[in-house]
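Hi everyone,

Forwarding the result from last night's run.
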Amino acid sequence: MPSVTETTKTTNKGEPNHVSVLLCTYNGEAFIEQQLDSIQNQTHQHISVYASDDGSTDETLNILKKYQAQWHKGDFKIYDGPRKGFMANFLSLVCSTQIPDSYYTFADQDDIWALDKLSHALTLLQAETQQDPVVYCSRTELIDADGVNIGYSPIFTRKPSFANALVQSIGGGNTMVLNPTAVRLMREASIGQTIISHDWWAYLVVTGAGGKILYDKKPTTLYRQHGGNLVGTNIGLPAKLLRAKQLLNGHFYEWNNVNIKALQSVKQLLTKENTEIFETFCEARQKSLFPRLAGIRKAGVYRQSTMDNTGLFVATVLNRL
């Protein structure tokens, strides 16, 4: 992972509450200053930024260098990304040996963070056993290109679990904060992987290994919806129709294939109970209709809403799961 520019200063070395912000950028000049301002203005004081730029041709790099020159909360390093898409870019940071162990949080270039996002997340994370992998995530407040509120992401009420993670991702990466144990687990599980998304992968790996997801109903991130989004919101009729289309055209089936292949390579990290759930789920997908229905029921996989569970049943019947 070659560095484009080195840090301007190093502070807070060894600080137990230090947070490393993993920021991935690509032609983000339109909104990235608002995101960096919201990170710089966090009430939490011990923050380093590790930005991986995937070959921007606009002013993104110059903006990053401007903030690097004035950063005072910790390190600010800029790296040349792998240029293989956002997923590979995030994993390049997760797996980097140049970033010290600390709390990690993912940052998109076009969002805005609530000023107490990190302090609030750390309060909840530090109340948990630090020997276990724990990930904080939350709802999001949706904003348009001008920063105007246009709604909120759904409230999920069912318990986060590996059985849920196998068929649904509930926590946006732009809201996640990982404790150091979860960071080390993710690093071990992610080297050389091809996955669908870094946030879904974190949900799968951490719950699969017996860790915990702290899902917060309080929105901590203003999630910008605009024409350049790689991943959009999951609310409203258009999003529901898109999910139905993805199910029918086989996208959901292929996503599960990718996740299963990745999990197979790190199956030793799963708990005994979750290994059984995983194997039952995998075997059921290969069977004919009625054994498939029985197997999926035995695996106990579920989604968060009644409508989504109906879609899960349809996907099972159509062999699109």
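The mean pLDDT is 92.

Cheers,
N.
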